[in-house]
Amino acid sequence: MGIRPYNDLLPCEIASIERRLCLPSSGRWSAAHEQALSSFRRAQGLMDCSGMDEATSRALERIPLVSDVPIHELKIEEDSTWDTHVTEHFTWDEFRSPGDGLCVPDAYRPNIVALCRQLEIVRSVLGNRRVTIVSGWRSSWWNRRSGGSHLSPHLTGMAADFTVEGLHPSSVRRLMESLMECGELQDGGLGRMAQHTHYDLVHAHARFHG
Ligand SMILES: [Zn+2]
After folding, report:
1. Dihedral of alpha carbons 56, 57, 63, 66, sign
2. Do 90 and 186 share a domain, yes or no?
3. Model pTM?
4. Has residue 73 been placed in a domain?
5. Based on the domain organization, do 45 and 108 belong to the same domain?
6. What digits encode the pLDDT tens for the residues 16-73?
7. Which domain holds residue 129?
8. What stretches of the chain show up as alpha helix (H) in DSSP?
9. Claim to verify: residue 56 and residue 126 sit in the same structural domain
10. What is the whole-number distance in angstroms between the Cα of residue 161 and the centre of ligand 1?
11. Distance 147 CA to ligand 1 centre (A)
């Protein structure tokens, strides 16, 4: 297919790039698009060029979109705290992108709800200890700044890094593993970092250390 000049990209192609790179949707190619694409290519080890080439478009297609990951049914609780609370013990403010304070985009809110329902289980099994979100949803800007993978489940609101009051991350992880084994907690990715626990709904059975 060679290299297509950006000016030749159709609005739907631009929209697809915007969704995959988490850019605000504008439908028109701009310097911000070019910059985001350049850093995406750098992260992928692809050659930068001033148009759309096949390797880049293939790499873009591999980015999971929110519509490709299981969408969790969004049930709006019939209570007046919906605006502030995701679930009983978690608020939308806690899930803002840590570095720039941006709110969780509507498209990813159902994922955060699904995640918090699981975190409520963890919280209650641990005797209702306070669970503090260190990093929930991340904007693509903050994800890059904080060194996150461009495929990070934090980008789609499918992951949270958190601490549990009075418990070491290794104890939290052990407990979560046993809950997953007995099917009480949705199996997902679990990471024990030095200071917190990472849990995501994307990488079933994945266990890693930070
Ligand atoms: Zn994480």
Report:
1. positive
2. yes
3. 0.63
4. no
5. no
6. 888 777 777 777 899 889 988 988 888 788 899 889 999 999 888 877 665 444 444 4
7. 80-209
8. 11-20, 31-44, 54-61, 109-125, 140-145, 169-181
9. no
10. 5
11. 11
